[in-house]
Amino acid sequence: MKWETVIGLEVHVQLATKTKIFSAASTAFGAEPNTQACSIDLAMPGTLPVVNEQAIDYAVMFGLAIDAEIGMTSVFERKNYFYPDLPKGYQTTQLEKPIVGAGVVQIHLDNGDSKSIRIHHAHLEEDAGKSLHEGNFRPGVSGIDLNRAGTPLIEIVSEPDMRNAQEAVAFAKKLHSIVTSLGICDGEMSQGSMRFDVNISVRPEGITELGTRTETKNLNSFKFMEEAIYLEVERQIDLLEDGGEVIQETRLYNGETRKARSMRSKEEANDYRYFPCPDLLPVVLSDEHVAQLRANLPELPDARQARFMEQYQLSQYDADILSTDTSMANYFEQATAKSGNPKLTANWVAGELSARLNAENISLEQSPVSAEQLAGLIVRIADNSISGKMAKQVFEGIWDGQGDADQIIESRGLKQVSDSGALEAMVDKVLANNQAMVDDYINTDPDKRKKKLGGFMGQIMKASKGQANPQQVSQILAQKLNEML
Amino acid sequence: MHNHTIAELITGLRNKVFSSTELTQHFLARIKTLDSDFNSLISVTEAQALKAAAVADQQLAAGDAPTLCGIPIVHKDIFCTQGVRTSCGSKMLDNFVPPYNATVIENFQNSGAVMLGKSNMDEFAMGSSNETSFYGPVKNPWSTDCVPGGSSGGSAAAVAARLTPGATATDTGGSIRQPAALCGVTGLKPTYGRVSRWGMIAFASSLDQGGPMARTAEDCALLLNCMASYDHKDSTCIDRPIPNYAANLGDSLQGLRIGIPKEYFSEGLNAGTQKAVQTSLSEYEKMGAKLVEISLPNTGLSVPAYYVIAPAEASANLSRFDGVKYGYRCDNPQDLQDLYCRTRAEGFGDEVQRRILIGTYCLSAGYYDAYYGKAQQVRQLIRQDFEQAFEQVDLIMSPTCPSPAFKFDAKGNDPVAMYLEDIYTISTNLAGLPGMSVPCGMVDGKPVGLQIIGNYFDEARMLNAAYQFQQATDWHQLTPEGV
To answer: Which of A292, A325, A351 is the last residue of a domain?
Structure first.
């Protein structure tokens, strides 16, 4: 039997506000445990929440970016459950009246196809703290770190519109691209700034009814998400083909062991007893405020891709690669502004630089080669100062911190010889030293003489230690040999 | 000194009849000798009080002191006080010392008032008799075998026994007005949003409101001037100009339209209470007011609606008391479940547990619409009843509660009988309206309260009506025997 996979995503996006959603404590990542938790975050008796207006604006900006209905009156509710890293015993979130309603996100697939993924809604909520269990804390003791408690999140809930892992990853990357373009999220996956819950079910091809789904929670990288989907789809198909059935449950995927396990089944699910939070008034937006946010929206990935094709004459493929990641787009534009050569810059940013960063597993922000430095290198390739082959050596030099392209070319003596007088002398010398080859050339059938040029070129390049400008040499050589005929 | 009103004490301090230190020492001495009879205070903050009084005396001497500078005051133990244990009447918070002040406390500190101590109360403000306090019941100074009312029974008893000239209190369903009535003092629950809830430990957030208790309406006005403030730390606080509540206390009542809701004079009302209230209403007629019979048709639904909404909110508000971060924690928890279960079973009293269970039930899947959803609809209807009534009248008057103070254990085993204590007070909380209780008579040697309900933010009019009544009567001047 052929199976069809159905995937829906719930994506938690930490908003890049300076302070928490309901308190003035800092949201900065990586501080000592519990140093960024104030009395409100600790749920001390009598403390009250006050909503962070920046978080409201960020959520609205996301809604505008995906062309969603904006909830002009949204309501915070309490989601009740007990857990040590949830200090109030309830999470303040939105349910009945979320701030962002139905919208749509376009994804672009590697095969060139595009697809629309519908967004059911997106709501604002607070993050929980972290439990530090044995091994991460102290033997025999669990610790609680409430620094993260109260960090603003938007939870984006998609419709089950994805049909395979590639689509799910493309969707996740597109969301990453949108929220980082908007500047509402720092996009740091390793710090948990974006986390994915994946709902997966399978059904026989041609059947419209959905199969029983499972939810794999808290995936924090595109790679883990892809692996988890493959694993879960395979598990479900195996189960069904063996005559078993899929149980609705929550699962956890461990990226290190590449294994998933069941966390809890539907029967063990909590009754969250949602009700409107009486400590917070409904969030009411004015048309003017939303219009102002709309007018000030930064450029979004799709618009940026179109602009890259138009302004820089890039192919759709190049434009897609360079526009999806906000930092890469910015890097490319900075480098192009200096190099004046969009195509070559695009090749280097998407090619050599990206490959090298991936290999070393470092982000573009931490790249040892700055946009200015890369532009300096590209200028020298474009003006024929160095050959493509030498350029890679120079790039390595910049990467290793040996200076800018010009400094490295200078210090290593890599500059291409383009002075025609010097090149003519070099050609004359090689011709004089290789009379046999010259005779051979002259005696060869005119149609086949071209093949003989390679031998001369090799000699000349060798004599110049690779620094001779090959195009110029080739011209001079052809001219000199013709004169001898 | 203890028989003076706050208004008189303010003058006395400025005329150097006595110093704040003398005043403070006097009340501290009275607490020491008398409060063992009443149990009205959970904590007495003697050292801090004397220090604050000394500072107040310097300020008074310098001549630029705020109105309440040097005036002793007692705070309900529901208001967080920095560095001073704030128990909320519960074993759960017996060891809790807040690192911050409630905004109300901050306001009193800024005005130079001197905190004598923290008053006893029903556990987490849940009760109408003060019998649910972890620190034992408060006794009614008028009759020590009777309850003082609740939940602000400690504040009411302390004022009645002249252990303090004034006190702060809170009112979720009648917790200021009912004990004020039962103890023969004047108490005011302001409009929801008038007084900041920051640092006031939540029972039912959409109903809780802090307010003053004192001997007279004038004193309540002076205390409200200090308590009321717009506070950006409380999202439900309303940013609206705050009048000087003591400024218009001489206004004539000529032509004042007083609504008398017929539903508040029905079955269950004690005959003596009814008579006292009716006599008081005649007094208002003599002062030129006009009595208008009105109807608040949904009154009968207020108690059931309240006992869904308040416990529902409480069930979430009290989830934070889990033994993890502060407060009581059970001994030797075996695992997380055990920590939660035993901490909460041992730390909360029966009434609190009952309300958490009711609230949890009302919010559960499948019951939400039938209970919480319905109750919110009823709340809307009750609000509309009042809105319509206030189109015809300026104030509404009624008994504060159905009967005078009852004996201990009289209703302890019958939660519903206890809940009906608040039948006349609950509607105003559901509507968010201000209400007050003024002493208006005596039945069997125990005080009776007249309830005055005003329109939103109309506290000044209510206080003036109460003030005029107290100019014409002396019920508020009666003092329990032996104090």
So the answer is: A292
Report how many Cβ contacts below 8 Å link chain A to chain B. 100
Give the pLDDT confidence score for residue A466 in this predicted structure.
75
DSSP-assigned letter for residue A185: -
Q: Would you call A90 and B325 a contact, using CB atoms and an 8 Å cutoff?
A: no
pLDDT band at B342 (very low <50, low <70, confident <90, very high): very high
Looking at the fold, whether A187 and A78 belong to one and the same domain comes out as: yes
Please indicate whether residue B175 is annotated as part of the active site: yes
Taking the C-alpha atoms of residue A150 and residue A128, their distance in angstroms, rounded to an integer, is 6
Distance from CA of B246 to the nearest CA of A (A): 29
Burial class (CB in 10 A: 0-12, 13-18, 19+), B323: buried
3-state SS class at A326:
helix
| CATH number of the domain that residue A450 is part of | 1.10.10.410
**Which segments within A259-415 are labelled E, that is strand?**
259-265, 275-276, 283-284
pLDDT at A136 over 70: no
pLDDT at A439: 87
**Chain A, window 143-172: residues with a beta carbon less than 8 angstroms from a chain B beta carbon:** 144
pLDDT on residue B53: 98
Which residues in chain B are closer than 8 Å to A44, comparing Cβ atoms?
80, 98-100, 325-326
Tokens 């208790």 sit on residue: B213
Residues A146 and A42 in one domain: yes
Flag if A80 and B319 touch (Cβ within 8 Å): yes
Averaged pLDDT for residues B268-276: 94
Residues in chain A with CB shorter than 8 Å from the CB of B200 are 46
**Interface residue of B235, B326, B341 to substitute, partner A, most A CBs within 10 Å:** B235
Question: Does B86 sit within 8 Å of A44, measured CB to CB?
Answer: no
Class of domain B6-255: alpha beta
Q: What is the pLDDT of residue A135?
A: 63
Q: Which domain holds residue A432?
A: 420-484
Q: Which long-range contacts (CB under 8 A, 24 or more apart) does A298-305 make?
A: A298/A181, A298/A182, A298/A183, A299/A181, A300/A65, A300/A178, A300/A181, A300/A182, A301/A174, A301/A177, A301/A178, A301/A181, A301/A326, A302/A106, A304/A181, A304/A329
Residues A180 and A227 in one domain: yes
Catalytic residue among B87, B175, B427, B437: B175
> Using one digit for the tens of pLDDT, what is the confidence trace for A161-187?
999 999 999 999 999 999 999 999 999
Residues A234 and A181 occupy one common structural domain: yes
Number of domains chain A is built from: 3
Asked whether residue A69 falls in the same domain as residue A142, the answer is yes
Contact list in A for residue B86 (CB cut-off 8 A) is 45-46
User: What pTM does this model have?
Assistant: 0.90
Tell me, yes or no, whether A107 and A78 share the same domain: yes
**Would you call B319 and A39 a contact, using CB atoms and an 8 Å cutoff?**
no
Same domain, yes or no: A257 and A347: no
Does B365 reach chain A within 8 Å, measured CB to CB?
yes
Per-residue pLDDT of A279-291, as tens digits, reads: 999 999 999 999 9
| Statement: residue A317 has pLDDT above 90 | no
pLDDT at A134: 64
Indicate if B403 belongs to the active site: no
- pLDDT for A461 equals 82
Same domain? A330 vs A238 = no
Decide if B398 is catalytic.
no
φ, ψ at A39 (rounded to 5°) = -60, -30
Confidence of residue B56 (pLDDT cuts 50, 70, 90): very high
